[in-house]
Fold each of these.
Amino acid sequence: MTASAEAACDVAIVGGGMVGASLALALASLPLDVVVIEAAEGLGAPHPSFDTRTTALSNGTRRILTGLGVWSEIVRDATPIRRIHVSERGRFGSAVLDASEQQIDALGYVVENRVIGSALARRLREARNVRVLAPASVTAATTGADAVRLELEAGGEARTLGARLAVAADGANSLVRREAGVGAERIDYGQVAVITTLAPERFHDHVAYERFTPAGPIAMLPFGGGRVGVVWTLSPGEATRVQGLDPAAFAAELQAAFGWRLGRLGAPAARNAYPLALTRAAAQKGARVAIMGNAAQGLHPIAGQGFNLGARDAATLAEVLADAGAACDPGGAELLDRYVEWRHADRRALIAFTDGLVRLFGTPFPPLRAARGLGLVLFDLCPPAKSAMSRLSLGFATRLPRLARGLPLVAPESATQAVAP
């Protein structure tokens, strides 16, 4: 392995998944030299995060993606969620959230990750002041007074990159977070999500179903071509067993657990399984390091808010840097404190909300199980509660970043781009 001379940049984003790529695009409008470091062969379809799994995009995230200039491409393959139906197997009571009642077009949009990734990658290739190093991996990170020194392996070469700000967007097992001395708590839910798509007998009519069962929740998300995206949460042993079933047997067991609201369920496409856990970093910053996305928090998919929370991380950090001006030190302690303080309430509340849902609907305690059904009925009869829940897609922060409000990150006349050396 050969070594190359040390390079430098203003911001190094470690991790080119959906959150890291979104941040890079947001920063492309600022006079900053930005480098994205990605371990996969390249951004877009080959990236392991940009596969056939689906993501439910909130309205706030739709606005962020619009501000980044990619929503017009994504929307062609996006399926709107007009209603959300929540129920519990074997119990009375259900609740329905309807977009029309909230006077909005949709409660969210379901999109394949590969579609989001391809749109972000194409846009990034047009950004003059963003460089992408891929495949490249960070092997060490050392913080100095003025920069974080990143040791890289890229193309058979050992490289060194000095960044005034390093962004940890490299997933739940983030090396950059760990090298910054920031620990993370991991709570294993003892559950596995089996994910697939299938075509039901009845058209989904743009309804997303959340069905709670004794084995775990089942989500059915409306998808293109009349299909639905399935997220079936099971114990590890049960997940292994149903993964081994032939397609007809798998569909029959899913039918028995979910019910007949969509008519007979067709044979599933390819099935994948992912263990579920809550990961939570002790902080969202270290010295000259900002932590975001799954490196900051990994959520249970029960509420479909993982990427939406990470997108707000990216939009917030971009706004903090934009407001600080061209002469700022992007890794300065004051700016990072501003980012952490802004994200604190949204992050804490959404983690608690998601974890609380898992525990509430996972307990077999009979009185609590009965109360859940009554709670769903009362919720369904309470318009203010429905309005509050529909605002979940914008997060729990008292102040939203401009991109999430549909506003430009910076005024057009002040947006200048620096050409990467």
Amino acid sequence: MKSLKELFDRITQRVNINLRELKFDVNPFVKDLVPFHQLVKFYAFYGITPHHPLDFQFRQSNLAGSYFLGKCCATNSILYKSDIRGDELKKKGDTCEFQGFRIPVSRDEAIRIEDSFLIKTLVHNFSHDPETLENFFIRNTVSTHYANIHGSPTDGSYLGPFATVDLTTMNDCVIGAFSYVQAGEISHLHIEPGTVWVRSPNNFNFLYRYPLNKLNHYIHFTAGAPPQGLLIDFVEDRKEAFQRVFETMNIDPSVTIPNNASLDRFAVIKPKTHISENVLVAQRAFLQNSWMGKGANAQENCYIINSRLEGFNVTAHGAKIIEADLGQNVFVGFNSFLRGRPDCRLSIGKESIIMPHTIIDVKEPLSIPPGHLVWGLVTSPADLENNSIELKELNKISEGFSRGNMFFEGSGSSFVTAFRDRIHHILEANGALYDGMKNRGHAQKNQNISFNTIQPYPEGDLKGLYPTIIIRP
């Protein structure tokens, strides 16, 4: 295991060099966070379909429990139970439009992970940076439990647990626990825990900060200790349910699936769950006693329990919905936590937008009217007043406003339009709009995936490392 330890030291040193100006040391946060013996126990696996390029390269890396789809390369990296999802990689001949430019893609895009340590991280490639069209890179980066790197080329950075960088090129930054950043391009920033920041230069700027004394109940991470809080406990309490799907090669679906829907064989589906047409259920999703209406989706690391989603609902990576009823076209953002109770349901009206990293945790019935934007921490009707706005009202704002801990400046109509366009793209890409002929998406293309496993050296100095592997057609 000597080489594995040397690899870990190499990664942390390179990240620390990049973060020296911020005086941030990743070592205390990740040392012993995943014991080395854990990195030897799990196989890695990759998917093959007719719709995704078969091109994988793994060099001097550990890939324990990680999943790869599309053109991916890992070099000098440690990936522990991460999902590297390249199903929206650009192809040679595609054209990228950006601010009036039409930029041709000269070769197939690839996800390239170098000198990085990704712990239970979701990487999705829907990239936006016109400067790196063919190379979606993650370099010199450490990310911790249930972080999301979504369309965000990243270099020299650290992400705390349940942090998300979304459509943001990031260099030499620290993103605190449960923070969400969608800001185009950032460098040399230290984002405090519980920050939700959405910026479009010259258009709008949305900023919310959680009260840390309240956020700590849900997620708290300090050097020398594992992540703690309700969010971690919630996931850990259901961890055993995934053991069977990863230990058994062939599992028949426990529910009936329409022929235009997709249920990943690495998802957990508990009894009394209904899957409608054009539904996408991704790997590591957890559904129990829930109704998934037409075109709804549950992305990676989502939990939907005792809930009803009427249709065309987006449940983004890591979101959790418990004891809730959602109307059509409700968007629930990354890593949000929505929890009603059996005797006090949470209801969300149609066409509402629940901002990424929102916590709605109620002990009395709560109903969110249709067409509202909701953010931050909501535990009562009074909180909802301070943490929501009707989309029609937001559309009229031209300069800015503040409400509670949220500050907004710029064009409200631009903000709403950007979100609605994004939601439409997600529904289209996931196959929610498939009519039997047109608009095929992930729900249709991911129905027949062959999974193949690879394993590391079992002993000796190379114990825990995977041999150099190149997989091509």
Amino acid sequence: MKVIFMGTPEFAVPALKKLHQDGHDIVLTITRPDRPQGRGRQVSATPVKKTAMALNLPLSQPESIRTVEFIDLIEVLQPDVMVVVAFGKILPKRLLSIPPLGCINIHASLLPKYRGPAPIQWAIINAEKQTGVTTMFMDEGLDTGDILLTEKTDILPEDTADSLHDRLAEMGAALVGKTLRGLLAGRVQAVPQNSGEASYAPLLTKSDGRIDWTRPAHALDAFIRGMSPWPGAFTFRAGKRLKIFRAEPVRTDAREAPGTVLQGFSGELRVMTGSGALSILEIQGASGKRLPIREFLQGNSIPPGSCFSAAC
């Protein structure tokens, strides 16, 4: 088929590669304009742009997808279908109506659950047992279109948002290939979403990563994994930020206030929570690198009774 692909981040890259591998005629790849990235604010190409250039695919980086000039360009190209993966913009109605087979989106959840920009993180934070990917026809709403196909995966106890992201990106690529084959063969039928079962996964900000020690240890374990690698779970001690990358719930008979550092073995850091304790496994200080807790404690003393919360 003649395909126009729209996407921006790493999550979209496997799908673009899959469409190319399957032999579709990718007549245009559309991605967001280059922007300053990281602490150095260096202008960087998007992952999709880098991939399109490596595959010698036609490329466009419009400032707006709502201009008459841009929509006219899409009409001239006459795509059979548009595939949209994490592009970051809602498409206007006129653009959605151009391809005869529609605009197909890959979303990293089992819709209608976790509509919105951060479905991977929130599925882990909320301690879901399963998640997956969904292909759907796009409409003018936010992840509200009719469902085509879904693929499920278990959320593993050690999964972070990073590891689950990579797994779902590959699953989404395979599913969009299967979806296009099914549409061509007439084997795939769209099913409307049940909006009564819908939930929303809002965008995360840096401040969302602050740990609330009054929550149970098992919930904080899920929270830390869901916040990794960004925005990162963090707490404060004596006004200095500590970023926590890995932890595990442990049983305790202690009765200290949530956020209190408990007595533990040498090289161990246990913190009281609202229910049970959390053993910190990897941590980063305000001016250091990510370290296993034993190495961190060799240069940073955190004695029992220290406090990570205003409640203690």
Amino acid sequence: MFMKRLTWFCDAGRRILSGAIWVAISTAAFGQLPPARPTVVGNLELVASISGDQPAGIAISKSGRIFISFPRHDGDVQFTLAALRNNRPVAYPTAELNRADVRRPADTLFSVQTFQVDESDHLWMLDTGTFQFGKPPVPGAPKLLEVDLASDKIMRTVQLPAEALVANSALKDFRLDFNRGRDGVAFITDSAPNAEALIVLDLATRRTVRRLVGSPTVSAHPGRTAIVGYEPLLVSGDGNHQEGPTPWLVGLNALELSADNETVCFSAFTGRRLYAVNADLLADFATDNGKVSASVRNLGDIGMAGHFVLDAKEQLYFMDMEQNAIYRRESGGRIALVVVDPRLIWPDTMAIGPDQYLYVTTSQHDRRAEFHDGTELRRQPYGVYRVFIGSDPRRALRPKTRAGKE
């Protein structure tokens, strides 16, 4: 009996000691946790509430005019390009231009994704040329348009030749470099699944080349599933070609051109990594694609960023859909948080205004039905917000020898 009691006492002592050690370890571990980040960082201001179609792109003129794009994510839209007037979107430059017409693919707008304003206060837009996201582009419809904001007149239309595209091309973003070629070149991202490429387009000759095709730097990396709105971002199965929910993966999407026009930075959307490549190599049509791919530099991890914007101080701004946040990568490589706010529900596209504010659209893209077993969770209105950054925009500048108005 004595031995049984002694055994029980020893076992109980071990359990108590074990519990004390676990409590000590768990308490110590809890004490090691970093302090909780505030739910809101930065002063995010509402600029406009938008009801209707899902917004995406944003651009701001030198005088402060705000433009918003409405890509054909769901098919038909009221208009794909708008100017904000009294905080309401109005078809721009005309309602007629916004009526897509397959008989006049070069003269009407189909689906404007992104745009930007150059130093001459001309608005440039990228028309993906599609009637619905994921559908093949209409022949002759993918193009760049240049509009003079002083007169609201179209100055130039540059159609992308058929050889620049693939059957499932999904044009996303672009940057202009007026220092190369006779009239400049455009760098355009194409996130076509399994055929991602960085397109170089000569604006004068319309000669093109697809760069980085097959490179892992532009592919949709399999790996960690995106967590957006506290839920894994999974595409619902369709019962035919797809049996169940699969992780949402998108390749090459965002890009930016350095202030000296020497470097193009880019990222695969779900790749969460920033890369850089020499612009001279990209734009030299005689350079082999293998050499271009081999020259890509890895600049480190970033968040799930769908868009970049560069300010006059050479600081790169990028959003993070998983964090409802926008970050800034400084010229030395240091990354700083600019703003985090629960209202940033899928921050889509950014632009810096002449007032030194960073403007951003929120598209609620993660709340679309295909991510929630067919249940539509987007709630209107959508928001356009801004946060003060104290820096001017960096705009594409035309050399004086090529622009008589400069």
